[in-house]
Structures are given as structure tokens and as C-alpha cells.
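Lab notebook: predicted structure, single chain.

Context: the supervisor wants predicted structures on file for every construct in the current expression panel, including those that have not yet been purified. This is the next one on the list. No modifications to the sequence; it matches the entry in the shared construct table.
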Amino acid sequence: MDTTGLFLALIFSSIGLGYFVYGRKQANPVTRYCGIALLLYPWLVTDTPVLLAVGVGLMLIPRYIEL
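Prediction complete. Output recorded below exactly as produced.
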């Protein structure tokens, strides 16, 4: 993984922590699980464009899915 990938992993993990905390406080399972996914997926994905696409996709899920 190059420097860009490491930086994106840091950004998306930080956003994931925020989503997780917000989802837990608001009792919103979609936001909470997206936060967990944002925290964990950078460990599995090493390709930078895929890392960016999956991260943006996970960030948009709570906006369009509400329970």
C-alpha cells in the first residue's frame, strides 16, 4: 500500500469512528454498522481506487437507508 492508501485508510477509519459513535448514541443500526465497516475494511483492501470507492459507498449508505 502506498502513502495515498495509508492516508485514505486513516481518513475513512476516523469517519467510521464518528459514524459508530453517532449511530450508537442515536440508536441507528445502519449508521453504527457502516461505522464498523468503515473501521475494518481498510485492513482488507489494498488497492487505492477500490479503497476510495468502497469508503465513499459506505459513507453514503446511511444517507439513503433509514430504519
